[in-house]
Amino acid sequence: MNDFNSPSDPTACPHPRRRRRRDFLEALQQSQAAGLMQLVDIGQRLRIMRSERGLSIRDLARKSGLNVNTLSMIENGKNSPSLETLQQLSLTLETPITAFFENSAPKNKIAHYKASQRPSVIFAHGMLEDLGAGMPRRGAETFLVTLKPLSNSGENFIVHTGRETVFCLDGQLTYTIEDQTFVLEPGDSLFFEAHLPHRWQNIGTTPTRSLLVLCPSDEQDRPTERHFTPETACLEEV
């Protein structure tokens, strides 16, 4: 059973690529603990990125200010890095923090998952299931989104490139786009230009499920992070 009672951590999340302060780390750790997610080897990803840059583990320690033993334990899967550690590493390696969660396996041309096998992440106020995991991130990203009651995307409006499509499956989902508010119930859909400031919220007392399709026009844009970082605010203190 999904756990929708994890505590919130509402803090601001800036947009610039190298200054993103939060990511899916807390979500990943919760998912691994709950057995809800296909495991991602952060240590292996760190080792690969370090090697690609021709850095020894001591070089990385010196550049990042982190302890050699700490880095060694992370790379060997003996220690889970804190969010602050990943922030330091992402800045040192000049890479988005999301790179630590990417699967290094070859990309597929077809993504087929049984309902119980979909890669999923628990974020601050719900669950994000990647329907296209393993596919190249070009053109569109498709997710099954479960939002717990009284949750929202935060005080700041979201803006990104391309277009966005939402199809409500269960519950009641509210989207605000500029000065217009749309209430989506099962079977309702919403399609809009994503450069328009928007935000989502579940103001109901039951979880809501929806199909979300993000189609950024810029390959460097990462709209998922703006929608579902662990900082997404909750309307009710937990």
Describe this structure in words.
The chain has 238 residues and is an alpha+beta fold. It folds into two domains: 25-101, lambda repressor-like DNA-binding domains (434 Repressor (Amino-terminal Domain), Orthogonal Bundle), CATH 1.10.260; 108-227, Jelly Rolls (Sandwich), CATH 2.60.120.10. Helix content is 22%, strand content 23%. It is built from six helices and ten strands. It has helices spanning 25-34, 42-52, 57-64, 68-75, 83-92, 223-227, and strands spanning 120-123, 126-130, 141-147, 151-152, 163-170, 173-177, 180-184, 189-193, 198-202, 208-215. The strands form two sheets. The chain has a six-stranded antiparallel sheet with strand order 1-2-3-10-5-8. It has a four-stranded antiparallel sheet with strand order 4-9-6-7, with no helix packed on it. Strand 6 and strand 7 form a beta hairpin. The chain starts with 24 loop residues before the first helix and ends in an 11-residue tail after the last helix.
Number of helices: 6
Helix coverage percent: 10-25%
Q: What's the Cα radius of gyration?
A: 18 Å
Q: Kindly report the name of the CATH homologous superfamily of the largest domain.
A: Jelly Rolls
Instruction: Please give the CATH architecture of the largest domain.
Output: Sandwich
What kind of sheet is the major sheet?
6 strands, antiparallel
Q: Give the termini separation.
A: 19 Å
pLDDT average, as an integer? 76
CATH topology term of the largest domain? Jelly Rolls
Which spans of ≥5 residues are poorly predicted at pLDDT below 50? 1-39, 230-238
Strand order of the largest sheet: 1-2-3-10-5-8
Order of helices and strands: HHHHHEEEEEEEEEEH
Q: Report the portion of residues in β strands.
A: 15-25%
Total strand segments? 10
What's the CATH class of the largest domain, please?
Mainly Beta
How many domains would you count in the coordinates? 2
